[in-house]
Design brief:
The protein is mostly helical. Helix content is about 70%, strand content about 0%. Helix 2 (about 35-60) runs antiparallel to helix 5 (about 130-155) and helix 4 (about 105-130) runs antiparallel to helix 5 (about 130-155).
Amino acid sequence: MLEDLTLRKAVEFAVRTEELGAGFYGRLAKKFKDSKELKEVFAQLAKDEVLHGQRFTELRDQLPEESEPVQFEQAQYLRAIALSDIYSGPEGPMKNLAALKTTEDALARAFNLEKTTLLYYEGMKGILGESEILDAIIEEEKRHVVKVMQYMITGAKMRGLEDQHP
């Protein structure tokens, strides 16, 4: 999907990443079903990822069907992020869920996924320029990074995107 990268393909990749993230978090919610609070954290993250996917779909639908490939350096940057961490990395966030035994392992994996997607989306913004939809998604991803880290450190309850306060 990232060959001859166009802006539309970059956004389609983001839609697919959010779909995969929703599935990832849904599987974690099932895996940790015996911990009510952790199950809720992952279930909320899954819901948020579905919402992100819908917003990226809106953004994609605003783009022209055909566009020139993204500049080589920008395309290489997005490919490096996507392939090294999201799909291909041996310790990538969505790899080998069976190996996750502890809450700490699962939260660390979630944190890595959120950081990676945030980095990808900020790279997209460098290509896209200003976009209210993308800006909103980036802000939500930042909140995810903060909330997952807060949960890792303090056990704070996560309420998903309805929690708009730090």
